[in-house]
Amino acid sequence: AQPGAVKPVAAPMRDLTWGQLNFLHTTDTHAWLSGHFLEPSFSADWGDYISFSQHMRKLADDKGADLLLIDTGDRIEGSGIYDGSVPKGIYQYDIYAQQKVDLLSTGNHELYKAYSIDMEHNTTVPNFKENYIASNLDYIDPKTGKRVPQAQRYRKFKTKNLGLNIVAFGFLFDFTGNANNSIVQPVADTIKEDWFQAAIKEKPDLFVVIGHVGVRMQEFKDIFTAIRKEDWDTPIAFFGGHLHIRDAVSYDSKSLAIASGRYLETIGWMSIDGIAKKQPKEDDDEQVAAQKGISFSRKYIDNNLYGMYYHTGLNETTFPTKEGRKASQMIEDARKALDLDHRYGCAPRDLWMTRAPYPGKDSIYSWLEEEVLPSVVVNEDRKDKPRLAILNTGGIRFDIFKGPFTRDDTFTVSPFNSGFRYVADVPYEIAAKVIGILNSQAKIFVHGLPNTRQLTIPQQMYPRPNFDEETETVEDGQDGVELGGFGKEGPEIDEVVQDDENEEEVRLELRGDDGSSDNGELFGGYTTKDDIGKDGDDTVHKPIDFYAVPNCIQAEVGFSADEKPKAVDLVFIDFLLPWIIPALKFSGGDYSAKDVEPYMEGTLTTKLAEWISDNWKDEC
Ligand SMILES: O=c1ccn([C@@H]2O[C@H](COP(=O)(O)O)[C@@H](O)[C@H]2O)c(=O)[nH]1
């Protein structure tokens, strides 16, 4: 762990189930390679993960089993190690590459900017060579202008110890916000292509589908269905991400999909036993398929040293490896070079994204609406004009904890380079309708309006089934998508261990009061319910309450107390541009992109830092 990070807390643990083939999975790390300084459950850093994975590989070797490491993208944007350098990522790519990842794919965050697409093509792909898979992603080579695959389309390989034949794919969901030096091909089109159709006829011992795709999203359903059309029997392991949640879905009795959270909070674990190694028949090329008694198991490992020692049987002295220590040192050096611990001020209280009700005094969104935006959204030439300032909740990425607020925190809260734009002098009754449309959850049809689910935080984009209810499927409220697994049969997993302890509903901070649980009480943390059951988390926690947030929030700035203004400047964060004009049109305003101008200098991130320096001056 990094110097200054809180120590982990002892807690009741659940063991990992080993199989023939085992996986460690990270996703949506968003450059949190330092780990979490203030949260004991997640205070291990990338160097600790390297040590952990090396010990786990050794354990696999000792058992005559195999272990593969997977990463499903969104490695960048979200923490100072990436966002704090100019250009971005000058330390991040090298530190990340210290880990030996066996299969990796691209997330949407690698694609928002032409720069990060180039970096992926010229740095991460060469760093990981044949381990990098890009089944539906192409790169436009700037020298030739030619469209080339970002990496190989799929990978065929044999595992080290058991010699299992694997065919692996690496997908991205049907993302459309990518910069124009990349092309994301829709999954439904990709799976019709000859190379994919040939690959799924390979009859390996196992298919591994990794992807920056939510495990309940249509894209994975389509891939699963396409494989099963050709091959009803071969087991399939899916590794997903994007939605920042822990989740597992059983598509059929011979497949399992897991999603392993976000921000290096979670290291996903999947193991598979009973994989039948296929032998070629002597008389022809067809291979024998005989999958009987296949079993899958999953765990969500809290990323801290207590758990890593527990799962490896090691301790403070025996655990760190040379390579792990090296990566931790690289992180420490990068943090110093980037001045990430520079203190802008002291947060007087915790401010939560979803762990406090919105609106409310502990909500980060209410704080932004009531305190920050009215003060920072100012254009000197138009400061007398009343304005509405709109932010999408998805643009805010993390909580603020009471105590020092650092340069690193500015990036964990607001990593994007988004500035503010505006449409001038919009009649108030038109401008005031925009927020309602953006928060409408697509229940009304607005011509030209992109899906509003993209505006909110990832955890809310695709609501999950309510595992407390008996029903197997629910409507998700947006497009009437059926959730609760792809089949209607429910999970068919051979190894299911239910754990009904810890049902008490208690609100506790994940951070804990003083980082200890000496009184023997359970510590607050993830208490995941998924298709497999309630025993997924490796650490037994007390539950934490989470509250829903809207897609967007809005501050009224420069309004008189007595009456609403006749016209306002409609100010919004850059990211909202594709939504604003259609929403204004629907509200009765005949505006076009030509009416949009930059509103002021600076980004939300720089404005946040300025506000905190000016307003949180007390010592801590
Ligand atoms: O410039 C940006 C980029 C993204 N967002 C928000 O983030 C989500 C995507 O989050 P994932 O981590 O990829 O799941 C996007 O839908 C936006 O809500 C943003 O606000 N600004």
Automatic annotation (TrEMBL):
One of its GO terms (biological process) is nucleotide catabolic process. One of its GO terms (molecular function) is hydrolase activity. The keyword Nucleotide-binding does not apply. Keywords: Signal. Residues 350-581 form the Putative 5'-nucleotidase C-terminal domain. InterPro entries: 5'-Nucleotdase_C_sf, 5_nucleotidase/apyrase, Metallo-depent_PP-like, Nucleosidase_C, Pesterase_C1039, YHR202W_N. One of its GO terms (cellular component) is extracellular region. PANTHER family: 5'-NUCLEOTIDASE-RELATED (PTHR11575), SER_THR PROTEIN PHOSPHATASE FAMILY (AFU_ORTHOLOGUE AFUA_3G04160) (PTHR11575:SF43). This is Putative 5'-nucleotidase C-terminal domain-containing protein.
